[in-house]
Amino acid sequence: ISPINMRSALLDMIENEIQIAKKGYVASITVKLNSLTDTILLDALYKAVKAGVKVNLIIRGILTLKRTNEKNAGKINAISIVDQYLEHARVMIFHNKGNEKVFISSADWMVRNLDHRIEVAAPIYDKDIQKDLKFLIEACLNDNAKSRIIDKGQKNHRYDGGEIVPY
Length: 167
Known about the structure:
By secondary structure, the chain is an alpha+beta fold. The chain has helices at 6-22, 39-51, 111-115, 127-141, and strands spanning 28-33, 54-59, 76-81, 91-94, 101-105, 121-123, 147-150, 156-158.
């Protein structure tokens, strides 16, 4: 719950993925939000990328991601999907060594949402609902009609179904 402990809980889950990656296991974080501007969480994602965590970002609106260095290239994908309808789904998936932690949330990763509003993230325990959410996230990650890629040159261009150029 924001503003009580959402940021610290997110930081703990990001740190868990970092520790998993450092032990040589597959580690990934997939986040679908409207906006991602919180510098504390962005710094944690940069740290995760540096440790070997694969990060997928589906951000509809504002994303203040800065370019990582070349040795970390390929570990973070950032896309945006904007369509006719205002998209509000916020989903977070932490690989957690194969025992995925899946959440839905009302909060974007922004200071105003994490520090100045009451927001909630709820874990999804039902395996069928997790499967449905992961299917929708995969559809977003593979969209070649409405998605736009933010590449390492900070160019925003349509995804045409080819290989995503990682950030």
